[in-house]
Amino acid sequence: MDERFHTLAELAVHGANVQPGQVVALGPTVGQEELARAIAEAAYKRGARFVDVAYFDPYVKRARIAYANEDTLDFVPPWYANRLVTLGERGDARIGFAGIVAPDVLNGLDPARLGRDMLPWLKEASKVIDDRSTNWTIVPCPHPAWAKLVYPGLDPDAAYEKLWQELWHVLRLDEPDPGAAWEQRMATLKTSAKNLTDCHFDRLEFKGPGTELAVGLLPTGRWLAADFETRNGLWHMPNIPTEEVFTTPDPTRTEGYVTSTKPLVLKDGAIVRGLKVRFEGGRAVEVEAEENGVAMQSKVAYDDGSARLGEVALVDRHGRIGPLGTVFYDTLLDENAASHIALGNGFPFAVEAEDAERVNVSGIHIDFMIGSPEMVVTGVTASGERIPVLVGGDWQI
Amino acid sequence: MDERFHTLAELAVHGANVQPGQVVALGPTVGQEELARAIAEAAYKRGARFVDVAYFDPYVKRARIAYANEDTLDFVPPWYANRLVTLGERGDARIGFAGIVAPDVLNGLDPARLGRDMLPWLKEASKVIDDRSTNWTIVPCPHPAWAKLVYPGLDPDAAYEKLWQELWHVLRLDEPDPGAAWEQRMATLKTSAKNLTDCHFDRLEFKGPGTELAVGLLPTGRWLAADFETRNGLWHMPNIPTEEVFTTPDPTRTEGYVTSTKPLVLKDGAIVRGLKVRFEGGRAVEVEAEENGVAMQSKVAYDDGSARLGEVALVDRHGRIGPLGTVFYDTLLDENAASHIALGNGFPFAVEAEDAERVNVSGIHIDFMIGSPEMVVTGVTASGERIPVLVGGDWQI
Q: Which DSSP letter does residue B79 get?
């Protein structure tokens, strides 16, 4: 095995903060075996009770979308939820895998049928996250097919090496002590988050090419960095890498239109390019895209909350992903290159109890990138004061 | 994908008799993706509600045996049993995968630690089988690593082709209508089984090189071919290929000693060679082997029933596996080349209700081959009459 997988695995179990005696649930795709095995080894060495690797096979999903009876496409076996809910009840650890293995596997399928099968995403995931019952992280897994997608001009070996190099850099694995490097970066992000919270904005306004959007915020909303604690006080980093500060907005007060600035890859692998969404009264009332618009519309129609915002996140230009200029076709990476919003489930833990009922609820959570160097983000207070927040990717507060 | 996987997949869904609306649970090992995907496609085309593929990764198991804390090695996450029990409650379909993917993956591990982790085997599997609640089958999956183990003298491509050819033959895929060919073979096996049942033997005696064994039978025991019905009357072939007739013996009346005639591969991949077992009063009191004897001893010590017989099976010389002379290092194939016995769980469905309580109960079921051309099998009735059953591999009854 490539020794780098072991180094990446060490960062993953550090970020998930795997504890002795925990079950560690891994969610790789078939093709990510090397990292799964390296993480299993690292987790057992930290004292894990059991490492439960549930491989997802997108080719089996393809067979379903292509051939299953129409009325079965929403079905999810009850033991899928049982696993996730039990992990939450036990207070176990979870490590998700980002990155692409088979970019073309779902090509040519009926987008409406595709949109009905949300797997590997489970609607119970939102509750487990909201409950803060598991310590978890998501890490990217290098793969030659991913590298080919990201660097189409390079030969396959060079592309794979470049993917490793860029991920190595953004994961801060090129630092003498990656854990300490992340601690330092998180301190900066937590300061930005605190500054934003202290401004008590009523809404944020985004203005840039193809975008003129106002996002209402909740009165007790807090801005956070991806540096979490479980309800039992266990620190973990839900995303590695992370460069964002984020909060959960008022789902009834988004107005205007927005154009995505990077492609968005849905959980099922469909790549949505050139997404344009218009909001009225918090709802996405028009959704179109240059590519895979129907698949995206199907997600937005998933449930009551799927057409409303659950997240708004700001990314400055000092993170390590944006400066690369690389489109990774993967939300974990791309969302940390640019400011973004997410349709679907919000974060009750980002507001006080009095606003918890106002946070958006949905079985989906789909981030898409709206930030760019031209984007100006302005905060507006309840009294109407307008305060610049991000200009040219630099914090103004 | 090699088109032959699609042909094999068709036989698998035929043998499991997948019904419209059923969940179909597949149990491949990582490395058997092509067959898993082909079966998924075939099952969806037959109207399956969902195909649930649970890949087992033996390299993750290796990490566990190598690094996990001693006191965690028996742990199985509760959602593993939940999946299997729920499949049974729902009356779903199951397709297991035989064949080897990584023959050396567990080499060099502590056999005592290895023996404590039974996965991917679950103790709940016995109950699901006994309840006849699911329609199921097991089919072999060709793999280059398996071919290399079976034909070490051939170059890798030739070995893989030879494995395909031999499996193609024993799976009767070389017949114009494989389903019909199996129907015909099963008719022969069911006749042999009926003849044996009608003899009402009190015990069988096995005599051959290294073996002098008496296996007591239960008064209402029936001999069966691997041609099953679920409790709801759904036909299925639990093993493809199959050449055996079998029953469940009296677990208190095995006496003598027996030497295995082919290697036995444990569920975790350890190959047990030269196994010798001595029985007293039905119990295996001495277990030794030329290779992996400790792993085998650990299985035999698993629970109260694991040292007693749950199955005795006879294989004539007219099946397609024995004549090849090939050792496949896989129980599904090798057990159908020769008469065999199994330690562990028995089959309540092979006796009348009055004897059901006498059938052996265990969380394990481990077949090992004892038949050979030199083996003479004699039936002894309650009145002491001795009737030849198998001589030189030919039925005498």
A: H
* Interface mutation vs chain B, best among A39, A46, A57, A97, most B CBs within 10 Å: A57
Residue B317 confidence (pLDDT): 87
Q: Is A64 on the interface with B (CB under 8 A)?
A: yes
What pLDDT, on the 0 to 100 scale, is given for residue B270? Answer: 79
Contact B82 A79 (CB under 8 A): yes
Q: Are residues B137 and B196 in the same domain?
A: no
Contact B37 A60 (CB under 8 A): yes
Please say which residue of A141, A176, A210 terminates a domain.
A141
Query: What pLDDT, on the 0 to 100 scale, is given for residue A114?
Result: 87
Are B49 and A68 a contacting pair at CB < 8 A? Answer: yes
Confidence band, pLDDT 50/70/90 cuts, at residue B268: low
The DSSP code for B28 is P
Best of A29, A50, A124 to disrupt the B interface (most B CBs within 10 Å) is A50
Q: Among A328-337, B49-58, B157-166, whose mean pLDDT is lowest?
A: A328-337
Mind listing the pLDDT tens digit for each residue in B109-121?
998 898 889 899 9
Query: What's the pLDDT tens digit per position in A287-329?
Result: 999 999 998 999 999 999 999 999 999 999 889 999 999 999 9
Assign residue A24 the CATH number of its domain: 3.40.1830.10
Q: Is A76 on the interface with B (CB under 8 A)?
A: yes
Kindly state the average pLDDT of the residues B80-109: 95
Are A379 and A253 found together in one domain?
yes
Contact B33 A30 (CB under 8 A): yes
Is residue B172, in this structure, part of any structural domain at all?
Answer: no
pLDDT, chain A, mean: 95
Q: Which of the residues in chain A have pLDDT under 50?
A: none
Same domain (yes/no): B336, B205: yes
Which of B53, B67, B78 is nearest residue A60 as measured by Cβ atoms? Answer: B53
Same domain, B299 and B204: yes
Split into its structural domains, chain B has a count of 2
Mean pLDDT in residue range B167-177: 97
| B123 and B205 inside one domain | no
pLDDT for position A268: 65
CA distance A310 to chain B (A): 30
Given a cut of 90, whether residue B248 has pLDDT beyond it is: yes
- The ipTM of this complex is 0.89
Nearest-by-Cβ selection for A40 from B53, B54, B63: B63
CB of B95 less than 8 A from some CB of A: no
Nearest-angstrom CA–CA distance, A274 and A272: 7
A chain contacts of residue B72, beta-carbon cutoff 8 Å: 21, 49-50
Q: Give residues 249 to 278 of A whose Cβ lies within 8 Å of B.
A: none
Region B169-188: mean pLDDT is 95
Q: According to the model, what pLDDT value does residue A236 have?
A: 97
CA distance B340 to B347: 15
Domain that holds residue A76: 3-141
Indicate whether B373 pLDDT > 80.
yes
The answer on B205 and B137 residing in a single domain is: no
